[in-house]
Design goal:
single chain, alpha/beta, Rossmann fold, 7-stranded parallel sheet, two-stranded parallel sheet, 21 helices, 51% helix, globular, disordered N terminus, Fatty acyl-CoA reductase, EC 1.2.1.84, lipid metabolism, NADP, alcohol-forming long-chain fatty acyl-CoA reductase activity
Length: 484
C-alpha cells in the first residue's frame, strides 16, 4: 500500500484540510445511484476538484451501468451544476460507470479491476439493501458479503488513503446507549455460523429462523448492518477504514436545493399523506425524539470522515490503530414525533391545509385508533377501486394505503424507542475543520433550525410526487406506442 503522506492541514494543530485531500483524487463509490449516493456525487463534482469518480453500478432491467449513469446525471439534482458551472460538461465527464456484480467473488472484470487498483485513493461504500422485511440470508448477502468483496478488492489498491463504510446508527439498536465502537456480539456463534446454517433451510424455515435469530433487533436490515461492522473489525482492521453511522436520513436542508428528495423511505414516506391532505394516524410515542439528519449534512459528514480517517492513519500512534466509528447524531436540537406533523404542515402553502394537517395526521400512543382508521381507509379504498373498475379504469387507492401501512409497520419500532449515544469523534472532526471547509461542509446538527428546514420539506415531497407521476405517464405513453 502506498503510504505517501499528503498535506491535510497544519501538523501542530492536527487540522483537517478537506479541500486539499480531495484535490486531484480518484474516488470510488458504490450505491452512487441511490438517494445518498446521488448527493455525494453532486457534492464532489460541485465543491471539490476531484480527478475522477468511479461508480460501481449493477445492470438493472437490461439497462447497462453507463445508461443508468447517464439517466442519473440528467436528473434535477445536477441542475445547479448545469446552471452555475461553465465547465459542467467536463465535470460530468469525470464520472465513470463500471458494470459490477456483487454476487461474484470478483465484482468487476479484470480490466476494470486493474484500473481501480492503480487509480483509486478514496472509497465510499454506500450501497445497501434497505428492505426491512428481507430474509436474513438475503440481507446479509447484500449488506455484508458485498462489503466483504469490495474491501478484499480495496486491499489491492496501491494508493488507497481512506475507506468510508456507511452503516447506520441503528445497527446496535438493541442497546439504549450506543458508543462509537464496533460491537462484536453477533449471536449464534457469529456471522459465519448463521450463513452456514441458513444454506440448508427451506424458504419457510428461513422465515421462522430469521425471527428467532433477530431476537430483540427489529428487522434484518439493522441486524445485517451490525454483522457488517463486526466483519470489518475482524477482517479488515489493517485497512484505512472507518465506519460512518448516519441516523434517519431525510430530505436536504440547503444543498443542492432545499427540500430535495427522490425516495419515500422511512420518515419521509410517512409524511406523504400530510402533503397530499390525506388522513393517517400512526402508532407511536409522541414524546420520542428521533435522530434525524438531512441528506446534505450526512454527505458532508461522510466527506469529512474520509479525510479524518486518513489523518488518523498518519498522525496517531500506535501503528495498529482501532477502526474509527462516527455516530453521526446530535443530542441537542431534536424534535419529538408529536411535533413532526405540525412542522411538516407548516410548509404547506394553504393556511387551511396547515390547520387540517394537525387533525388528519397524528402519532397516537394508543394502537386501537390507528387500527380502526386503517380499517375504514382500507374499506374506502376498496370501494373506490371497484367504482373505478366499473368505468374501465384501474384504481390504485388500495395499493397506496397498503404501501403506507407497510412502511408504517416497518418503522414502528423506531417511533416507540429512544436512544442516547456518544458522538465524540464527530464533534472532534467538526472542531478540526478549517474555516473554509466548515463553510463548504455544513454538518453541525446542533445548528439546524428545524422550523426553517420544514419550510421546504413539504414542497420537496410535492415536487418528487410530480416527477414520479410524470415518469409514470411517460412510461404509459411509451408502452401504448410500443403496442401500436
Amino acid at each position: 500500500m502506498h503510504n505517501q503522506t499528503i498535506d491535510t492541514g497544519p501538523a501542530g494543530e492536527g487540522a483537517l484540510n478537506v479541500a486539499e485531500f480531495y484535490r486531484g483524487a480518484t474516488v470510488l463509490i458504490t450505491g452512487g445511484t441511490g438517494f445518498i449516493g446521488k448527493v455525494l456525487v453532486e457534492k464532489l463534482l460541485r465543491c471539490f476538484e476531484v480527478k475522477k469518480i468511479f461508480l460501481l453500478i449493477r445492470r438493472k432491467e437490461n439497462t447497462s451501468a453507463a445508461n443508468r449513469l447517464q439517466r442519473m446525471l440528467e436528473g434535477p439534482i445536477f441542475d445547479t451544476i448545469r446552471s452555475t458551472a461553465p465547465d459542467a460538461k467536463e465535470r460530468f465527464a469525470k464520472v465513470v460507470a463500471m458494470d459490477a456484480s456483487f454476487e461474484r467473488e470478483d465484482i468487476v472484470d479484470d480490466i476494470d479491476k486493474t484500473k481501480l487498483c492503480n487509480e483509486v485513493q478514496i472509497v465510499f461504500h454506500v450501497m445497501a439493501s434497505i428492505r426491512f422485511n428481507e430474509m436474513l440470508d438475503d440481507a446479509i448477502a447484500t449488506n455484508v458479503t458485498s462489503a466483504q468483496r469490495l474491501y478484499a478488492l480495496a486491499s489491492s489498491m496501491a494508493e488507497l488513503r481512506s475507506i468510508v463504510h456507511v452503516s447506520t446508527f441503528y445497527a446496535n439498536c438493541d442497546r439504549t446507549y450506543i458508543e462509537e465502537r464496533i460491537y462484536d456480539d453477533v449471536p449464534y456463534g457469529g456471522l459465519e455460523h448463521i450463513q452456514l446454517f441458513f444454506k440448508s433451510l427451506s424458504p419457510v424455515e428461513k422465515e421462522r429462523m430469521t425471527r428467532l435469530v433477530l431476537g430483540e433487533m427489529p428487522n434484518s436490515y439493522v441486524f445485517s448492518k451490525k454483522c457488517a461492522e463486526a466483519m470489518i473489525g475482524r477482517q479488515f482492521d489493517r485497512l484505512p477504514i472507518g465506519i460512518f453511522r448516519p441516523p434517519i436520513v431525510i430530505s436536504s436542508y440547503r444543498e443542492p436545493e432545499p427540500g430535495w428528495v427522490d425516495c419515500f423511505h422511512g420518515a419521509t414516506g410517512l409524511c406523504v399523506p400530510v402533503v397530499l391532505g390525506k388522513t393517517m394516524w400512526y402508532y407511536g410515542k409522541p414524546e420520542v425524539k428521533p435522530f434525524m439528519s438531512p441528506v446534505d449534512h450526512t454527505v458532508s459528514g461522510m466527506l469529512a470522515a474520509a479525510c479524518d480517517i486518513y489523518r488518523r492513519q498518519h498522525t496517531i500512534l500506535p501503528v495498529v490503530k482501532p477502526i474509527p466509528v462516527y455516530n453521526f447524531t446530535f443530542e441537542k436540537n431534536r424534535f419529538a414525533y408529536g411535533d413532526m406533523v405540525k412542522l411538516v404542515g407548516s410548509g404547506l402553502p394553504n393556511p387551511l391545509d396547515r390547520w387540517l394537517s394537525r387533525i388528519k395526521c397524528r402519532i397516537s400512543p394508543w394502537k386501537i385508533f390507528p387500527q380502526m382508521l386503517l380499517w375504514l381507509m382500507t374499506l374506502q379504498a376498496r370501494i373506490a377501486d371497484v367504482i373505478l373498475a366499473w368505468f374501465g379504469k384501474r384504481g390504485s387507492n388500495l395499493k397506496a394505503v397498503s404501501a403506507i401501512t407497510a412502511l408504517s409497520n416497518a418503522v414502528e419500532y423506531f417511533r416507540c424507542h429512544m436512544w442516547t449515544m456518544d458522538n465524540g469523534n464527530v464533534k472532534h472532526m467538526l472542531s478540526l475543520l478549517s474555516r473554509d471547509d466548515a463553510q463548504r461542509l455544513d454538518f453541525d446538527g446542533e445548528q439546524i433550525d428545524w422550523r426553517d428546514y420544514h419550510k421546504s420539506f413539504a414542497k420537496g415531497i410535492a415536487m418528487e410526487l410530480m416527477r414520479k407521476n410524470h415518469r409514470r405517464q411517460q412510461l404509459k405513453k411509451s408502452s401504448i406506442a410500443t403496442r401500436d
